[in-house]
Amino acid sequence: MSTTPPVLAAELAEAWADIQRHHPELPDLAAPESLIGESSSACGSELSFERLLHEAVHGIAAARGVRDTSRAGRYHNRRFLAVAEELGLDHEEEPHPSSGFSLVTMNAEARSRYRLTEERLHRALEAHAAATTTDNSSSFRGPATRHGSSGGGVRVKAVCDCGRNVRVVPSVLAQAPIVCGACNKPFQIAESVAAV
């Protein structure tokens, strides 16, 4: 994506500013467009306020000089988790073998604190998705597309709970879960180098 629509960029900036009001050491958000599109889906989840909080954890860790990831930014360590908890994000007891504590979720207090901000950002993201989705049903896109295949594209690493991995086009994984035959858990797109 070359540019971020002004309304979405403004909503991202406002949501980030709301987090800063509660956590003043959080640096300014320099490039909202870096959080949109493939950069966010490559991290295993689409852009949302919860994802923005996750990125804010990295921002605060960077401001403090805390190394919160390893393995080229894929593994989120206990230092990441400690900052995440400060921002109202929780994680299950055990870390994921390849991504550590990356799959954090908002706790009830954070949901209450950021409810209005989360709703505004959600509406802006929905409007952005609707505006950028085009109906190509009347145009020819090749046999792979017509039969539900990806038709090519950049493959990314997806991992399951037991650590096995596959290479997959993100749009294929978005169509339906791919389940590991060894652990019966769905493959998730592996964390990429986190950048705030």
Tags for this model:
single chain; 196 residues; mainly alpha; 3-stranded antiparallel sheet; 8 helices; two-stranded antiparallel sheet; 7 strands; disordered C terminus
SSE layout and pairing:
Blueprint: H1 6-22, H2 38-41, H3 49-64, E1 69-70, E2 75-76, H4 78-86, E3 89-90, E4 105-106, H5 108-113, H6 115-132, H7 143-146, E5 156-159, E6 165-168, H8 170-175, E7 188-189
Antiparallel strand pairs: 1-2, 3-4, 5-6, 5-7
Structural overview:
- It is a single chain.
- The protein has helices at 6-22, 38-41, 49-64, 78-86, 108-113, 115-132, 143-146, 170-175; strands at residues 69-70, 75-76, 89-90, 105-106, 156-159, 165-168, 188-189.
- The protein has 8 helices and 7 strands, in the order H-H-H-E-E-H-E-E-H-H-H-E-E-H-E.
- Helix 1 (6-22) runs antiparallel to helix 6 and helix 3 (49-64) crosses helix 4 (78-86).
- The model is unreliable at 37-44, 138-152 and 192-196 (pLDDT under 50).
- The chain has 196 residues and is mainly alpha-helical.
- The radius of gyration is 18 Å and the shape is globular.
